[in-house]
């Protein structure tokens, strides 16, 4: 097929909605994943920034402890006042604690570790010098020793400051890098979250306008449907009125046709009775054919009247015992049953809701059909069975369902049967599988059966094989 001739498939509103929702969820999922990744990185980098601040704070605490110890010693040596020693006590422990924390915090940085080791050694030397300073008195003979100790202590302190400065510079450099990375991820996070929010707003706006448009279209369709429904109701009323007129016309016409047929039959019988000896064989044949045609015409009119009566659904449904219906039908067909020596067996039939007259007509037509189409020289056997079935066993191509429980009534005979390819044809009005010379009938009886089952929201089907009989299956709601 050429490209230009191929039909263009257009998505329905429901498919468009599903596709839009699916794409939106996919985009939101991607945004959520990216946001989660960025937030994790931002949290990690923020942790490293806090890590650098902790290193710098501990370095500051360490150098502060040394200053406090040094200041405390000098104050005591100058004044010999023991109150100046208060800051000295515990300063070494504070200093070592800070050094241990710094070493732990910088364990992933080899350069910082070396500086910390050097700083630890210098701090230990500084505290030894401070302890030696307490042994130096203000005696003039030891004045030079005191100056030498103080001078050496100052040199050590200068070295400590140099090492501390190196540590702070390295950590400040790392802090700057970590802040830059943190700011970068914070910026990306803002962009991603803003994009996600903007996308959500766009999707919601599009969805709102699409749904508004669809709602507007559906309102228009609803209004059109209401208009069509009103027009349809008017057409139904006209059709019902027309059908009623046709039924009345058929009924009146059928009654009007009965009188001429009676006259034809009556005068034909009188002529053959009065002039029987005067008529030759050919004339007698003509009159017999007139009587036969009149009889067929009468049967046809009667069947048409029956079809017209049964074409309408019952006005009121009542409980009908099918056992009673079957007994009444067998009483009506008693003469035919005896003449053909037929055997009819029936198990207990159910009680259904319907119109008894129509259901009686249904059974009478089906049993009459079984008595009519028999094999020559074979005694007719008719077996009637029933069973309850669920809605799952309801035939696929059938009428509407009104109940969850149904009864299946099978009427099986041992008659001549027929090819199953004609199974649908036999329920069509005036359709006959056999000629009028072979079997009498008008081709309306089974059409009436189908109409009656449909009037009761039921279904009728048939299974048959030539020479092996026929089974009519009637399904009625309980």
**Total discrete domains:** 2
Strand content is: 5-15%
Give the class from helix and strand content and strand pairing: alpha+beta
Can you list the strand order of the major beta sheet?
Answer: 2-4-5-7-6
Number of strands: 7
Quote the average pLDDT: 76
Task: Note the topology.
Elements: H1 13-79, H2 91-105, H3 110-133, H4 143-274, H5 281-310, E1 318-321, H6 322-332, H7 334-339, E2 343-346, E3 351-354, H8 356-372, E4 381-390, E5 405-413, H9 445-455, E6 459-464, E7 470-477
Parallel strand pairs: 2-4
Antiparallel strand pairs: 1-3, 4-5, 5-7, 6-7
Helix pairs in contact: 1-2, 1-3, 1-4, 2-3, 3-4, 4-5, 5-9, 6-8, 8-9
Describe, in plain words, how this protein is organized in 3D.
The protein has 478 residues and is an alpha+beta fold. The protein has 2 domains: 10-209, f41 fragment of flagellin, N-terminal domain; 318-477, Heat Shock Protein 90, CATH 3.30.565. Helices cover 65% and strands 9% of the residues. The chain has helices at residues 13-79, 91-105, 110-133, 143-274, 281-310, 322-332, 334-339, 356-372, 445-455; strands at 318-321, 343-346, 351-354, 381-390, 405-413, 459-464, 470-477. It has a 5-stranded mixed beta sheet. A hairpin with a 5-residue loop joins strand 6 and strand 7. Helix 1 (13-79) runs antiparallel to helix 2 (91-105) and helix 2 (91-105) packs antiparallel against helix 3. The protein is rod-shaped.
């Amino acid at each position: 097929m050429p490209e230009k001739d191929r039909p263009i498939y257009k998505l329905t509103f429901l498919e468009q909605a599903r596709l839009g929702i699916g794409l939106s969820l996919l985009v939101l999922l991607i945004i959520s994943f990216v946001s989660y990744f960025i937030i994790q990185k931002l949290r990690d980098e923020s942790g490293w920034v806090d890590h650098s601040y902790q290193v710098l704070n501990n370095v500051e605490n360490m150098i502060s402890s040394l200053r406090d110890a040094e200041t405390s010693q000098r104050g005591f040596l100058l004044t010999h006042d023991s109150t100046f020693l208060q800051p000295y006590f515990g300063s070494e422990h504070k200093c070592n604690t800070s050094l241990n924390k710094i070493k732990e915090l910088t364990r992933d940085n080899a350069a910082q570790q070396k500086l910390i080791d050097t700083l630890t050694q210098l701090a230990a030397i500084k505290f030894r010098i401070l302890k030696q300073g307490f042994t130096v008195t203000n005696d003039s003979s030891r004045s030079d020793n005191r100056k030498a100790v103080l001078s050496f202590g100052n040199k050590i302190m200068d070295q400590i400051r140099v090492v501390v400065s190196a540590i702070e510079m390295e950590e400040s450099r790392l802090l700057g890098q970590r802040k830059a990375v943190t700011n970068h991820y914070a910026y990306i996070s803002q962009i991603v979250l803003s994009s996600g929010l903007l996308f959500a707003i766009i999707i919601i706006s599009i969805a709102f306008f699409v749904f508004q448009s669809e709602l507007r279209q559906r309102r228009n369709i609803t209004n059109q449907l209401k208009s069509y429904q009103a027009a349809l109701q008017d057409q139904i009323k006209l059709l019902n009125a027309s059908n009623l007129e046709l039924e009345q016309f058929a009924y009146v016409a059928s009654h009007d046709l009965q009188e001429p047929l009676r006259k034809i039959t009556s005068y034909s019988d009188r002529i053959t009775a009065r002039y029987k000896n005067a008529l030759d064989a050919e004339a007698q044949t003509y009159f017999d054919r007139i009587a036969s045609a009149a009889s067929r015409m009468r049967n046809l009119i009667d069947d048409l009247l029956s079809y017209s009566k049964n074409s309408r659904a019952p006005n009121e449904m009542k409980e009908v015992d099918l056992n009673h219906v079957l007994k009444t039908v067998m009483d009506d067909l008693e003469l035919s049953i005896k003449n053909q020596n037929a055997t009819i067996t029936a198990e207990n039939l159910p009680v259904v809701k319907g119109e008894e007259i129509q259901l009686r007509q249904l059974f009478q037509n089906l049993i009459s059909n079984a008595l009519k189409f028999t094999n020559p020289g074979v005694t007719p056997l008719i077996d009637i069975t029933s069973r309850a079935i669920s809605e799952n066993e309801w035939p696929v191509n059938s009428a509407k369902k009104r109940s969850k429980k149904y009864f299946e009534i099978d009427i099986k005979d041992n008659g001549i049967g027929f090819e199953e390819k004609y199974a649908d044809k036999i329920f069509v009005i005036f359709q006959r599988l056999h000629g009028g010379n072979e079997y009498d009938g008008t081709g309306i009886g089974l059409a009436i059966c189908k109409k009656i089952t449909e009037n009761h929201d039921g279904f009728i089907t048939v299974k048959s094989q030539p020479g092996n009989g026929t089974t009519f299956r009637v399904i009625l709601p309980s």
